[in-house]
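Incident log, structure service

09:12 report received: a user says their structure output differs between two submissions of the same chain.
09:20 pulled the input from the user's history:
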Amino acid sequence: METFESLVRAEFAPENTYLNTASSGLLPGRTVTALHRAVQIRAEGASLDPLFEDVEAARAAFARLAGVPVHRVAAGPSVAAQTGLIAAALPPGAEVLTAEDDFTSVVNPFHARGDLKVRAVPLERLAESVRPGTALVAVSAAQSADGRVADLAALREEARAHGARTYIDFSQAAGWLPMDADADDFTVSTTFKWLLGPHGVAFLVVPEDFGGLTPLFAGWVAAEEPWASCYGPVAELAHSARRFDVSPALFTYAGLRTSLELIEELGVAAIHAHDLALADRFRAGLARLGHEPLPAPGSAIVSVPGLGRRQPELSAAGIEVSDRAGNLRASFHLYNTPQDVDRLLDVLSG
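09:34 re-ran on a clean worker, output below:
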């Protein structure tokens, strides 16, 4: 019987100490193999049907991880593009409540409209700041800059009480933090970070009634019968969230399918426990060195003020982390070990 550790060892053999999943995740070995297979299909002139099947398999796997029926999942290229669909559906003058300094792709499309009232408050005050007239609350489940985890239960309660909808970005959470996308009106997640896929896919979860969204980017793949809809206007849009799809980057889905299969095999609950144990080990080590990270309890992301300047030194030593606004950001995922944490602490101490 394969264990968590044996499954991970079979898929990953990084040549450095990689603690930067919040920027992008490592590709599993099976995903690299799948990408080569996809390239061969194109190189040999074989049928592309298996690659289109990968799109649907990846969509179904994400739906299972998100806890929603697959017909509610739309496939697109990026979080910013998916946020743009949400922004375009709001009436002029609608109020959108956001968290201060949230990731740009989550908030800027609402600003770009030019005719919406976008209000930003500290993350800790987000739930209490929902008020009558708030149309939408948009926030990351985990903050990119420092890993703080939003109190989604409190936010949902206040949003329901005031008739507001919720739009949650799980890009820094899906894959290590359990998701319940059914509890929100809209959710989105890119897949090249904690879900370990190649770049180029962001899944959007929409309500059963589509939440008033307009399929602005609808092409032939958004039709109920795509291959019968290649010319002229689409006669019948897909009856599912696939009506919001754009033409898929087939290689990306070929790899993503296998990455999501690995996440499912390992189980998000086990990944969650593994990642948080490493993050807590790092926090404890920082305390011994006299450093205090920014408060982010229950997060796999740890951000340390004043140490961002040491990122080049750490990279030269074979340790990959991020410098975010002067803070050293380390992010821990399934392929990391206690030895990785200790090596980072050793370099920081000396």
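09:41 both user submissions now match this output. Likely a transient worker issue. Closing.
09:42 reviewer note: The domain at 38-265 is CATH 3.40.640.10 (Aspartate Aminotransferase; domain 2). The longest helix spans residues 268-289.
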